[in-house]
Amino acid sequence: MYPDNTIREEWAAEALTAYNGAAPAALLPFPDRTERVRLGIIAAEALARVTRRNRDGHTVDGPDIADEVIGDLLCYAVLLAEGRATADQLTRAAAEMRSTDYPVTLTAVCEVSAPDARPADRIAAMIAAALDAAEHFGCDVPAMLDHAVTCAQEMQAEEAAEEDSGA
Fold first, then answer.
1. Measured CA distances, 128 to 43, 54, 57, 159, 163 (Å)
2. C-alpha gyration radius of the chain
3. Which of 13, 94, 126, 133 is most buried, judged by most C-beta within 10 A?
């Protein structure tokens, strides 16, 4: 039997707890890329520890495991933010956090930082770190992010359909 979205959200919460434990308490200023890679790996490995039985899969140290674990992390992070921020808001905020463009814009970050959206700002920061970690390992980040968002939306739709049918 496959886990439901509540379980997946709990897994993402474990990763977020690990991320928050290692990340600066303040959202701003955003950590530099090297630090985001480290934080992304911390979050991904926390997820791997709760989702993978094989201890060899607990260390994100190459492109294959990074693609799997970080892909799951991105998907489950979108589920975790449900009701607080949309996948689009999260991905736009993560892009702003990773941006090297000047002048810096924080429009999407502000959207996910509203008091009623929290902890979506920290979820977006974890997503930004996970994307940097994925890029560090040579993963196809745009495809990975697209797949994760689509996967989360399909899981949400499936669960809603099951609830509607009384299953």
1. 11, 27, 22, 27, 32
2. 15
3. 126
